[in-house]
Sequence to fold (434 residues):
Amino acid sequence: MKSDSAKHVVIIGAGFAGLWAVKTLFGKKGIRVTLIDRNNYHTFFPLLYQVGAAEVEPEQIAYPIRTLLRGRRNASYLRGDVSRIDYANRKLSCNDRRIGFDYCIIATGSGTDYFSVAGAERFAFPLKTLDDAMILRNHILTCFERAASMDDPDARRKLLTFVIVGGGPTGVEFAGALSELIRGPLKKDFISLPMNDVSVVLVESADRVLPMFSPKLSAYTTRRLRKMGVDVRLSAPVKEISARGVTFMDGSICASDTVIWTAGVSGTAPGSDDRVPLSRGNRIRTLPTLQIPDYRQVYVAGDLVYLEEGGAPLPMIAPVAIQQGRWAALNVLRQERGGEPRPFAYRDRGAMVTIGRNAAVARIGAREFRGFIAWIIWIVIHIMNLIGFRNKLFVIVNWIWDYLFFERSVRLILPGCCVSPEGNACLHRPVSST
Ligand SMILES: Cc1cc2nc3c(=O)[nH]c(=O)nc-3n(C[C@H](O)[C@H](O)[C@H](O)COP(=O)(O)OP(=O)(O)OC[C@H]3O[C@@H](n4cnc5c(N)ncnc54)[C@H](O)[C@@H]3O)c2cc1C
Fold:
């Protein structure tokens, strides 16, 4: 349905929040939706680390937005980058066009935050987009190829040392997956390489990994990772990242050509001349209804929202984004129909993180699980939530293959990124502007 009298709702971002917002508005009378995203696909971030660790292909965790909107007559997609929002006049700038709206839901998510650590943006690899994951996968595989023909043992060890900064879910999951890639398929592929030269180091500034779980589950995670050969370094704040590797606050250095930054994220709102209240980490402070205080026709959902519940900010995770996206859309409908928007309340159903084969940690309600049972829960929940039947099928096949044969089918070094002749890939990686 597209009529001039229909109210125009613009949703910026087709991530978890934006997608659930648009789904909620499908077929709603008197509403016309434009969904804008710079990518023509939705990314399932919880499995992004598996692309970086050569476990699944990028297209298996992405889904075309136009396919999602197929047959929905009141919704359309516009590929573009929203550069500015004029909140006061309800207009936004996208692809050199000015687009007017009656309501807007901003769901542009978050980007990597390097916390002003010297050299981090230039020398560390982020893991926040499909491009990042592909660059990382190419780089890791290239390091092995280069090391195979290298005589200098120090240079070889540096090339084969992979440092992951950040002991949150992404850091833990990536460390586990990388260790399994190395000790499984790569060990078989590179029989002439001394495996003692290879190390995966997980660095965390706090005294435990996964602070969102109980200390018991954090300790279990550390034990499991160490058993898998990961060198877990706790209470180890990073001072600088350079071509040499990582320098810690105590002055020690870990020589490495590959530092992966998973330590922090911050909000990425489009620019504006109007003032909107921001929190630390560049997230927009909204009313409990998810509206921006001075611009009640504009809602914010997902990672970009700073909203406290019980005295603490809501976490930047997919379930919060999904619930907020849906809630923002419902509030638009309430407001449009003359009602009052209602405050958002997060329904916390739990959290889970996988460590590796047969090992994960999970909290469901008040109960905690670990080991094989948590791993099965993790698999089922992730397959259920992955968008697209084909994606589910291919990911399951990859996982079964990997589980049964300790093999990964995805080990191609594709064009687009490489290690420089000097050995450091990051020097050849364009420095991100966000
Ligand atoms: C590696 C990784 C692993 C994760 N693992 C988990 C996990 O296991 N479980 C969990 O619950 N959460 C996980 N998360 C967090 C979860 O992915 C986020 O909380 C969630 O994606 C936030 O949803 P969102 O809709 O706010 O933003 P996003 O999903 O980031 O979507 C934002 C969208 O906006 C688009 N966009 C941004 N700026 C613009 C612009 N200016 N113009 C046009 N389009 C724009 C982007 O292209 C993107 O599609 C993970 C995140 C990462 C990075």
The radius of gyration is 22 Å. Confidence is low (pLDDT under 50) at residues 418-434.
